[in-house]
Specification:
The protein is globular, with a radius of gyration of 18 Å. It is 38% helix and 15% strand. The C terminus is likely disordered. The longest helix has 27 residues. It folds into two domains: 204 residues, TIM Barrel (Alpha-Beta Barrel), CATH 3.20.20.140; 66 residues, Orthogonal Bundle (DNA polymerase, domain 1), CATH 1.10.150. It is built from nine helices and eight strands. InterPro entries: PHP_dom (IPR004013), PHP_domain (IPR052018), Pol/His_phosphatase_N (IPR003141), Pol/histidinol_Pase-like (IPR016195). This is PHP domain-containing protein. It comes from Candidatus Anaerobiospirillum merdipullorum. GO terms for molecular function: 5'-3' DNA exonuclease activity; 5'-3' RNA exonuclease activity.
């Protein structure tokens, strides 16, 4: 039976497309026994202050982000941890991302209108946190709420993923720029869920090589709903490219298979971020208790 990790370095709140507020995410993490949590909303750090306040004296809250990028027509996500959320370069980049997200959300809304979802943009925006960018995750929950699909996952796969009728290609920045922005803000750059990009192993290795060359420091080796063989392969890639290992549930909404900390044990043949002499002091939890 899978055990819960004490660390989760990838999750979302209502500051992007998560279902729980930053405070509720922290409360849920505490209920599940986590000791270290990174809040990594999509192209947003607006929930970090609230989460940090809620975490005081309960767990270590790491300021994080998940930045959207494009690499050879693939949408790639880069997680940043331990950020100075007020750094000017980060704030400039996030404002650019916010404007792109507004344009994309409006275009997705128009496509869904043509597919029969009346007032899709307005209704999805009404369900989202005030001021938060509207993401595909928000639209997926809206579609599911209409009863057309049984779940937000089904809605995402049917309408919103690449190649589906409401997908909108977006001119995100490069992986290199995201890594440079994260590092400039004092952060650690991590390639998020590398096996979800539906690319060949050859392309994945090329992506990782370029990520490493840009200054990336870790791969997200353990994630939710992942085959054991994929986890082991990513651990091998960490060794091959001399990268550290991270883990994260990519939590959005409460549910058995993507709950915070669920089934995130790292293979023994990779070095976790908190085990590295470079970063161990940033983590409040001793390495031997991390999993």
């Amino acid at each position: 039976m899978a055990q819960n990790s004490l660390i989760d370095l990838h999750c979302h709140s209502t500051a992007s497309d998560g279902a729980l507020s930053p405070t509720e995410v922290v409360n849920f993490a505490c209920e599940r026994g986590l000791k270290v949590l990174a809040l990594t909303d999509h192209d947003s750090v607006s929930g970090v202050a609230e989460a940090t306040a809620a975490a005081q004296g309960r767990l270590q809250l790491i300021s994080g982000i998940e930045m959207s990028t494009v690499w050879r027509n693939f949408q790639i996500h880069v997680v940043g941890l331990f950020l100075d959320i007020n750094h000017p370069l980060l704030q400039q980049s996030l404002e650019e991302q916010r404007l792109k997200r507004v344009e994309r959300a409006e275009e997705i809304g128009r496509k869904l209108e043509r597919l029969g979802f009346k007032d899709a943009y307005a209704r999805t925006k009404a369900q989202a946190q005030p001021g938060a960018s509207i993401t595909r995750g928000n639209y997926a929950r809206f579609i599911a709420s209409t009863g057309v699909c049984r779940s937000s996952d089904e809605a995402f796969n049917k309408y919103l993923k690449r190649g589906r009728p409401a997908y909108v290609k977006t001119a995100w920045g490069s992986v290199e720029r995201a890594v440079q922005t994260i590092r400039a803000a004092g952060g650690i750059a991590i390639l998020a869920h590398p096996r979800r990009y539906q690319m060949t192993n050859t392309k994945l290795r090329e992506l990782i090589a370029e990520f490493k060359q840009a200054g990336g420091e870790a791969l997200e080796v353990a994630s939710a709903q992942q085959r054991p063989c994929d986890r082991q392969y990513l651990a091998q890639l960490c060794q091959r490219f001399d990268l550290l290992a991270s883990l994260g549930s990519d939590f959005h909404v409460q549910g058995a298979w993507r709950d915070l900390g669920f089934n995130l044990a790292l293979p023994s043949d990779c070095t976790a971020l908190w085990q590295s002499p470079l970063y161990a002091e940033r983590f409040s939890i001793h390495a031997q208790f991390a999993q």
